[in-house]
Write a structure and sequence with these properties.
By secondary structure, this protein is an alpha/beta fold. It is built from 14 helices and eleven strands. The chain has helices at residues 10-21, 28-34, 48-62, 73-82, 97-105, 145-151, 180-193, 195-206, 218-224, 235-243, 274-284, 287-290, 326-331, 333-345; strands at residues 39-44, 65-70, 91-96, 109-110, 131-144, 171-174, 209-213, 230-234, 249-252, 260-268, 301-302.
């Protein structure tokens, strides 16, 4: 299983795009004409079914044609950097804002303050207007109840619990270099414990890890499938998999406190059809648009105060959170990932 990931192949991505394009019926042609035949390409950091649902709804409402490419945060940053001289996409949606903060620092984003951003609380948006939060997700542990019973151990309730001998070789997480979820974990531990102790903890945790996944959603799914005892993921992803039939999933969060993501939307510098991208950002910040995710199993908390949060997320609303410093995490992403790589190899 080491290194095994579920990559999105070109064929399945094409199928998703065809499905998304199907949402243009019922007046879409007239709306497309009204919008001057605009087309939008975006890089998407949330789940694929969320992407398809949002694309369908936006196309139906505006007539603007949309193509979405689903990638993890590390992949998205790499793609935007590689395309800097000739950007292929205009929009980045979802995944922890840390990645978009790094992209801002690297000069890859364009400032855009949507008129609808006034509704979004200050803690969920960039003070300079380079990104705006759409949803919020809490980091935690997804454990398999049957495997816990077989191992004679309770679900982890602290970061320290993950180091128990019963969990050796039975924890799956993602790689902080590719996954925004896993980078949130790395930055959380460093912010909680300080750099020296945080990296020492990550080195100790490395000895417990069964394998590292490319995407941060995979660990919860693998725990639900019984391929590991514990997956470290955002808790809303674990709720989704449990709702889809993985009934053995048990959700817990560390008592010391945990980090969280602000899934953000931003404008890629120099991208084509930026007017269409701005329309999408305006739309994504509305309560109506933010409520779409929960219809397809994305159970994050929402940043627009008028949006109704998913009832499925009520069980995790009291999760103890740290004062996660997004600006620091984004500014030190490359450096911290390098230090983590060195720590686990020493």
């Amino acid at each position: 299983m080491k290194g095994k990931t579920k990559a999105i192949c070109a064929a399945s991505l094409a199928s998703l795009m065809l499905l998304a394009m199907a949402g243009c019926g019922g007046g879409g042609d007239k709306k497309a004409a009204d919008n001057g035949g605009k087309k939008l390409t975006m890089y998407w950091g949330a789940l694929e079914d969320f992407m398809v649902a949002d694309i369908n709804a936006f196309q139906k409402e505006t007539g603007i044609k949309v193509e979405g490419v689903r990638m993890s945060s590390g992949e998205t940053i790499g793609r935007i950097k590689a395309e800097k001289a000739n950007p292929k996409a205009s929009l980045w949606f979802g995944g922890p804002a840390d990645g978009q903060i790094q992209a801002k620092q690297d000069g890859l984003l364009e400032k855009y303050v949507s008129p609808n951003a006034a509704k979004i609380p200050d803690q969920f948006k960039d003070k300079d207007g380079y990104w705006t939060g759409v949803y919020v997700g809490y980091l935690g542990f997804a454990s398999n109840a049957k495997l816990l019973k077989q191992a004679g151990v309770e679900a982890p309730k602290s970061w320290a619990d993950l180091l128990k001998p019963e969990f050796k070789g039975q924890i799956v997480t993602a790689n902080p270099g590719s996954s925004g979820t896993a980078y949130t974990m790395l930055a959380t531990l460093v912010q909680l414990k300080g750099e020296k102790d945080g990296l020492a903890y990550m080195k100790a945790l490395h000895k417990q890890i069964k394998n590292y996944q490319k995407s941060g959603t995979a660990p919860a799914r693998l725990a639900g499938q019984g391929e590991c005892i514990v997956g470290i993921s955002f808790l809303h992803d674990a709720i989704k998999y449990r709702e889809e039939g993985m009934k053995d999933l048990v959700l817990t969060a560390p008592a010391e406190g945990t980090g969280y993501e602000v899934g953000a939307v931003s404008l890629i510098k120099g991208g084509p059809d930026q007017d269409a991208a701005k329309k999408f950002i305006d739309w994504a910040l509305t309560a109506k648009a933010q409520e779409i995710g929960q219809t397809v199993g994305s159970y994050q908390f929402l940043t627009n105060p008028d949006a109704k949060p998913p009832k499925q997320a009520a069980e995790i609303k009291d999760t103890k959170l740290i004062k996660y410093n997004f600006e620091w995490a984004g500014a030190h992403r490359n450096e911290l990932v390098e230090k983590w790589n060195k720590a686990i190899k020493d």
